[in-house]
Every structure is written in C-alpha cells, then in structure tokens.
C-alpha cells in the first residue's frame, strides 16, 4: 500500500528515528516516502556510513515494483543522518526508537529522550516483546510513551501494533494511529499489554509447534516451511485464521468449533496446554464473525476467497515461469 501523497500546504514537524539498524532504516523509508522530513540517529560510525547506500538500494527495488510515486532521490533527500540523538529529536513531533531488544538499553534511552525531545513529542519504541510499562513506568512524561511494533520490513508489511501502557494518554495513542495510517501503515490497537504483543505471540505459537514436530521426527524443517508457504501462508495472505475456519466449514465458525474443537483440544493437551474453546468463548468469536459476515453471505465470500487465491496462484506461476 502506498501512502497518501503529501499535502504541501500542511506544515509537518520532523520524524526522529533512533537507531539505524534494519528496522530504523525501514521506518525512515516509510515516513520519507509519505513526505515527512526524517532525522535518523545511528551511534555506530560504520553503520551510519552504510545507511545511504542501503536506502538507495531498498528504494530502487521499491521503485522497480511501482511502489514509489516520485523519484527516489526526492525520498532519500528527506532523510538526514543526524550525528547525535539531540539533533535527531530537535523539534520532532514523533520519535521512533529502534534500538536492540534490551530492557536496560531501552530504559536508559527513553530517559535520555525525555530530556532531549520536545515536551509534546510522542515517544514510541519498536520493541518486539518488551512493554512500555517495563521501560517507561518510572519516567516523567510517561503518558506520551508507547510501543509501535512493526511487521518486518514495514515498507512492505504494513501492519503496526500500537501498544499503549495503562498510563499512555489517549491523545498520544490517537496521534500515533493517525500518523501511521497517513504513512501507509495499518495501525492495530492492542488493548492490553502482554509480552510479545499479538504478532509475535501468534508467530511464536506456530514456531513452538514447528520445533516440536521437527524434534519428534514428524516432519523436516523444509517440509514445515513448505506446508506453511504453499498452504497456510498462501491462504493467510488473503484471510486470517478466524476467517479461514469460518469459510472452511458449512455453518461457519460455530460449526467448525463443534466439529474440530475436541481434536484441537487433544492436540493442545499433548503439549501440556489446557485452553478449551468454551461455549461462551465460541459464542463471542462467532458473534464477531457474523457481525462482519452474515451467514447468508457466506457462499459469496467463499467464492471471493477462491478468486483471490486464483490470482495469487497465477502470480506465483508467472513469476516461476519468468
């Protein structure tokens, strides 16, 4: 998804990015492509010297696939490599921290950002698992701090988990969601802090089972990847896991829970897990699905799913034949 073209009549304050690793550079592309001035701070001189070439290479690839709406030089021109955190955050409206996943580092870094950044700047961490409550609870101005966990790379995978702490102000949450959406991302508000948020908990559930299946001699590593790549993943690129089982079963997700719930419970018990799909939970999930898709529209949606998969299969075949 390309972001909306920038409105030249609307003044914008800069976006600061702290950390020039792969995620920091990717965020720089996201915001610069959306028309924002970006200041990126990277303390390692060697890495800082490499960032210009990395930006040009990534944007060149995006341009070849029609995912940049202007000359890439214009996008690169919006990214300044700042020589200090102080320079990066000066006057910024939003600060995206992209430092390594260490609690001590993030705590110290956010304490520094509180001193350096404007008092109204929102301070967000790209943490993959550490919550804002863990690194910001004792800091002044904590009401403007939260986590924004992106898919990797965010210039291709648009979902971004917005994870506030209980102390994060509603205004900070709303500003962040609007900013991300305007940059072409898909912000998803996570309503409660949990380690790993939602993206990594879902990914982790699949990885835990995959490791167990390899350990137990059930399947090879390559065949696990093949099953996901050519099976689950193909379908999940069109619809999510709840809609998948909803459309796979005549009568929808409530019928699926009756037919398959006991088998899934036995599979979970093999791994020491006891999280049954209770009738009230199934009713809640089914109610949310039926609010989105009434059963009378079920067959039409199944046909839509199949056409989308046909498009993907055709694309894969075309790429393979090229």
TrEMBL record:
Residue stretches making up the 3-hydroxyacyl-CoA dehydrogenase NAD binding domain: 15-192
Domain 3-hydroxyacyl-CoA dehydrogenase C-terminal: from-to ranges: 196-283
Keywords: Membrane, Oxidoreductase, Transmembrane, Transmembrane helix
SUPFAM superfamilies to which the protein is assigned, alphabetical: 6-phosphogluconate dehydrogenase C-terminal domain-like, NAD(P)-binding Rossmann-fold domains
Domain of life: Bacteria
Membrane-crossing segments per the record: 14-32
Family of the protein in this entry: Belongs to the 3-hydroxyacyl-CoA dehydrogenase family.
This protein's name: 3-hydroxyacyl-CoA dehydrogenase
Native source species: Labrys monachus
Lineage of source species: Bacteria, Pseudomonadati, Pseudomonadota, Alphaproteobacteria, Hyphomicrobiales
